[in-house]
Amino acid sequence: MKVALIQISCSSDADANRLKLAACIADAASQGAELVVLQELHNTPYFCQTEDTRHFDLAEPIPGPSTEFFGRLARRHGVVIIASLFERRAPGLYHNTAVVLERDGSIAGRYRKMHIPDDPAYYEKFYFTPGDLGFLPIDTSVGRLGVQVCWDQWYPEGARLMALRGAEILIYPTAIGTESSDSPEEQERQREAWTTVQRGHAVANGLPVVSVNRTGWEPDPSGLTQGITFWGSSFVAGPQGEMLYRAPQHEEVVKVVDIDMKRSENVRRWWPFLRDRRIEEFAPIAKRYLDV
Predict the structure, then answer these.
(1) For residue 57, what is the enclosing H or E element?
(2) Are the beta carbons of 128 and 96 closer than 8 angstroms?
(3) Is 84 left (phi over 0), alpha (psi -120 to 50) or beta?
(4) Of the candidates 142, 166, 162, 164, which has an alpha carbon nearest to the alpha carbon of residue 152?
(5) Across-strand partners of 6?
(6) pLDDT on residue 9
(7) What is the CATH number of the domain that holds 171?
(8) Strands 143-147 and 138-140
(9) What's the domain count of the chain?
(10) Is residue 113 in a domain?
(11) Cα three-residue angle 232-37-59, rounded to 5 degrees
(12) Which domain holds residue 169?
């Protein structure tokens, strides 16, 4: 499968961001991409740096204007597109939602972000209701896609459930970076941890992993922090965690990576982790914590 990673910086002009993405998608399609993965909340700057009720005006229904826009691009270029949107489900009910658009422009499925962070500069609990669609892969013309979103990528349970339901690839639209008050050493530890944990999902499940992050610096409108420098580094890992491609930190990228989807079958024969799971002993994993 030829998968395109589109790693860009975002301006405050949503229309300009969409047009920029349209040009990137056309570029990816001209390089033979079959699946195009966009970063988290790509239409706007990462507005969750502050808690501001005005930002709810950025949300939209699904189907809605963005699914129509990216659906037309999917149909025009004959590609499957994974978009990431601020979903307005009902008054006072909003989600951080990934939408998969089929080659004909139709909506193949959606995934609502399950794990919602609440940290300095990442005040997502103010905006997003936790997802209620479960960890369900989405069937498309290019395969069964295990799509999750950003903070979900730190949790092995979601990756495992996607794998157990037949996902052929794990995909994570992302918006993550560092606040400049962290030391350079701490910033690098965080970036490497982010890469390592997702490569672990690839190994543990015998599946390729695609993670697409934004890049560039975005200011904190409140002035309480020095903003976020998104660390880019979008990557593709193979089913043994091998790095097939890793983007630069501070550059915009349209990169098409050819993934051998048949390799997962052989890797699972060599390392049959799913066969050897002691499922009869796993019930306690559903507890918040196990007090001794």
Answers:
(1) none
(2) yes
(3) beta
(4) 162
(5) 38, 254
(6) 98
(7) 3.60.110.10
(8) antiparallel
(9) 1
(10) yes
(11) 90
(12) 2-286
CB-based burial of residue 148 (10 Å sphere; 0-12 exposed, 13-18 middle, 19+ buried)? buried
Tokens of 48: 């969750």
Domain-located, residue 292: no
On whether the CB atoms of residues 202 and 208 are closer than 8 A, the answer is: yes
Q: What is the pLDDT of residues 238-274, one digit of tens each?
A: 999 999 999 999 999 999 999 999 999 999 999 999 9
Closest C-alpha among 150, 99, 98, 156 to residue 122: 150
In a domain, 291, yes or no: no
**Residues 153-196 pLDDT 10s:** 999 999 999 999 999 999 999 999 998 778 899 999 999 999 99
Q: Please tell me the distance from the alpha carbon of residue 157 to that of residue 148, in angstroms, as a whole number.
A: 12
Q: Where are the beta strands (DSSP E) in the chain?
A: 2-7, 35-38, 80-90, 93-101, 107-112, 118-119, 122-123, 138-140, 143-147, 169-173, 177-179, 209-212, 215-218, 228-231, 235-237, 243-246, 253-258
Containing 17, the helix (H) or strand (E) segment is helix 14-30
Active site (catalytic) residues: 40, 113, 150
Dihedral, 126, 132, 135, 141 alpha carbons, nearest 10: -100
Give the tens place of pLDDT for each residue, 175-186. 999 987 788 999
Specify the amino acid at residue 106. Answer: S
- State the amino acid at position 292 in one-letter form: V
Q: What secondary structure does DSSP assign to 261-276, as a single string?
A: TTHHHHHHHHS-HHHH
